[in-house]
Each structure stands twice: as C-alpha cells, then as structure tokens.
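Please go through the protein record below and explain what the tokens say about the fold. Record follows.
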Amino acid sequence: KDDVILIKGTTPKTTTGHLNLTTVDVSTGDVNMLEALWGWLQHDRVVVPHDSIYPPGQSQQQVDQQDHADFVGSQDNAQAAAFCELGYPQGVSIVSVSTDSKAKGVLQAGDQIVTVNGTDVGSIDKLSKVLEAATPETNATVDIKRDGSPMTVSVPLVAAPKGSKGARMGVTVAGGCVAPFQVDLGLADQIGGPSAGMMFALGIMDKVGDTDLTYGRFIAGTGTIDASGNVGAIGGIQLKMIAARRAGATVFLAPSGNCGDVRGNVPKGLDVVEVTTLHEAVRDLQAIHAGSAVPHC
C-alpha cells in the first residue's frame, strides 16, 4: 500500500490510527426510469441531473481539469495551514520553476528563499521590493534552504514584464508558514476537487507533529481548507459518512457549513464532530481522547 503523504527532508513518526479522506464516485450515462428509481431507493446512491455535475457549456474534460486544479490548490492550502498550526515561521517558498526559466536547474520547487543579494526576504512583499530594485541580466546571490539544509546559489535574473520595474527569477512563489522539509501528496490523478484539504492538513500534522491525533482510532472526515486553516463545506457528505462508517470509521469530522446535511443522516456507530477550523479539529481530536465534550451538528 502506497503512502498518500510523503515527507522528504525529515523522518516522519510512526502513526497509530487512521485519518481517512472521503470521496464520491460519479458515474455518467443514460439512465432509464427503472434504473433511476432503483438508484433513488438506494441509501448509498444519489441520482441527479447530468447538468448538476457538468454545467451546460462545460465539457467533462473542462470540469475534470478544474477539479484537478482545485485538488492541487487544496494540497497547497493544507500544507500552509498545517505548517502554521505546527508553529513554523512565515517565509517564501518556491512552488514551481518555469520550464523556460534561466533558474531551471538552480532553483527547484520546495526551496525556501531566505535572502536575495544579502537582503532578508521573509515575505512576498519583501521579495518583490528586492526584485524591483534588481538589475535584469545579472546574477543574484540567493540564500535558500532545501530540505532544511542552507545553500547559496547564483540565480540569473531576467527583465520584469512590460509595465513592471526591476527583474524576475522565473519562478512562482507562495508566502506563508514554511517548514524545513517537503511534503508530497498523492491521489491527484485519482480524485479531484478541494474537499480533502482538511484531512490532508491533519495527516501532515500527524506525521511530523509532536502530538498523536488519532490515538489508534479510525477517524475520517471531509472539508475544504484555506491557507489560514478555515474549513469549508463540501458536497455529498451524506454518502461520505456512509462510506466512512463502512470502512470502519467511528469518528467523522464534518464542516460546520454541512451541519444541515448531516442532521438525520448519520449512520449508526459514527460520531460526527462539527469543525470550523483546523485548530478546532486538532483540539476536538485531543478532547475525544481525553473523554471531554466536543461540538456536534
């Protein structure tokens, strides 16, 4: 069985339980009245119009591409939220290096930019100001951290786009809390959408944090997440709760925005906990272990 969350640059700890994300499978095609009736009668299936999944004017390929982009975005947000919750400092990291960038082979995704030409660039705003004052077609001395190890590299600079001042490095960066290791998240080719964000964040924390989040329990959940750790509502939560209980989950973390969908649809034996932020999710998991009260929908 392949790991979904891979940690590079530090040794992950051994986890004791389960933190499972949940997803809903979509099948399309012509459905006759008898098949539709059968689907409506099943508690683990939902029959909906094709346009509710693939809006008019959008092809299945376009929707799938957007789902993939949303999934990748949720991974980035999950990392940012998890790193902040774990107490790592604010910084600037490289998300990608353009294929035609002169920095290709010098910088790489995951590098943390520390200084440029001797000036601290601990935020995107500081990095922008340094590059605005830089001279194109020169080399900048850049201090970075790669997998936690400090390095100094010489990065060729190019002219900023027309209408902008200074130079650019030919990379895409993100600001936020930065950890001295890399996280690779799988499943992008298997599922789409942003609903796995919260569970990804919890999984990262469980692997590299000091606190056991499961204490051997089988915990599942769902919910989008932004870089600040706010958890958002998702679709298909009734089916996701059924799938989680069938897989063996006894605790399910549900976004507060989905409480209306949760009420009256909770499978027997599943404790559904209401969460609004990553911080609350962590606090609630610790409270469950301690036998303390937690919020429910």
Remarks:
- Helices lie at 33-41, 50-53, 60-85, 124-132, 197-208, 237-247, 259-262, 278-290.
- Residues 3 and 203 are 11 Å apart (CA to CA).
- The mean pLDDT is 85.
- The chain has eight helices and 16 strands.
